[in-house]
Structure formats: C-alpha cells, structure tokens
C-alpha cells in the first residue's frame, strides 16, 4: 500500500520513482494499492482505478477507460475534460445533448458496440433522459466572433481564468447558461484574440471529439 508516495518529490524525482515502482511490481509480481490525487500516477502505475469523492465511489473500472470518459465532475477536473449537463437529444447513432439554454451539442456517432456493452458504459441513450457531453479541452476552438460556414457546435462563453499548461494555455469559460467549459489554446492565440478575464468569446466545439453519454444516478 502506497499513500500519496510522490507528493513530497519534485517533478524529476516523481518520474524516477514511478519507473522504479513499476519495475519492482513487474519483476516481483506485486499487487499495488495506490492512493493518489495525481493523474500521472494513475496513467503510469494503475491498471484499474476506483475514484472516491467525499467517501463515495463515483467511478471505477480500467484506468484508460475511466480517464477517457469521466462521468463525474471530480474525475473531469483531474483530466481537464469539461462535463456539460442536459438531456439526450438526437437519433440513435448520432447523439446530441440539449443544454438548459436550448442549444444542442452534437457528439460523435456511437461505435456500433453491442447493446450490452453500451448499457454497461452508460451509453444507451433515451431521448429526454438526463445526459452529459464530455468535451476535452483540445476540442474547443476560440474566436472573437462566430466563424463563417456552419460549424455544428457553437456556444458563447465568458473567460473566467487563464493558466499556463506546458506549451498551451488553459482557458476557463462560463457559458451563457452558467456551465463551465475549458479550452486549450496556444499562447499565440491568446495574444491574437486578446483573450483576458471577462472577455466574451465564441466557442466552437468539434463534434467528432465529443462523447454524449447517459448521466449516472
């Protein structure tokens, strides 16, 4: 059992410790129970994950699957994925989510899995039922005004914060109905668009990167 083993280490030491722990577990056939708040620990060391929020299990399953499709705000914050809530809208195989404002977020087509598989993942979508749209930050492009053409997912947002994240800038936004959205853009785009707290921007979301799923009770 390791409880937050990397928390007191610097970035380089954390990377080395993850490699060491991974190698020892593989060489000796050890089962590791790891307690952590760092998503990098999960991706490097965990095959299965159980997520607790205020003492309650909110997610569990294969690590890659849970991180790729978070169903809770807690896991979404860890991965940077935005979770937009609404009701299911659209035809089978071409899911959409109707937001409280009435706008519809279109998602990527479902992948043809069996009914049992989609039910297990919470992807049986009944029109009018509660649902969520999972939006990764790199699926969001920002503009001063709505671009020409006919992009499917266009929302208006107000910038509430900016934070440097490696080579990119994480832009936090509040949508017109009060929900939160994050976008990952270059520093050049921030300067070109004069993005700053309080500024209104147009958010174009790539439908092919959006997953619409049923909301868990």
- The overall average pLDDT, rounded, is 85
- Share in helix: 10-25%
| Sequence of strands across the biggest β-sheet | 7-6-5-8-14
| Strand fraction | 35-45%
Task: Return Rg in Å.
Answer: 19 Å
CATH superfamily of the domain at 135-207: RNA polymerase II/Efflux pump adaptor protein, barrel-sandwich hybrid domain
CATH topology of the domain at 135-207: OB fold (Dihydrolipoamide Acetyltransferase, E2P)
Count of beta strands: 14
Distance between the termini: 31 Å
Assembly state (oligomeric): single chain
Shape: globular
Give the low-pLDDT segments: 112-119
CATH classification class of the domain at 135-207: Mainly Beta
Number of helices: 6
Structure commentary:
The model is unreliable at about 110-120 (pLDDT under 50). A 5-stranded antiparallel sheet has the order 7-6-5-8-14. A 5-stranded antiparallel sheet has the order 9-13-10-11-12. The chain is an alpha+beta fold. About 25% of the residues lie in helices and about 40% in strands. Helix 1 (about 10-30) links the parallel strand 1 and strand 2. It has a domain at about 135-205: RNA polymerase II/Efflux pump adaptor protein, barrel-sandwich hybrid domain (OB fold (Dihydrolipoamide Acetyltransferase, E2P), Beta Barrel). It has 6 helices and 14 strands. The chain has helices spanning about 10-30, 40-45, 65-70, 75-80, 115-120, 185-190, and strands at about 1-5, 35, 50-55, 55-60, 80-90, 95-100, 105, 130-135, 140-145, 155-165, 170-175, 180-185, 200-205, 210-215.
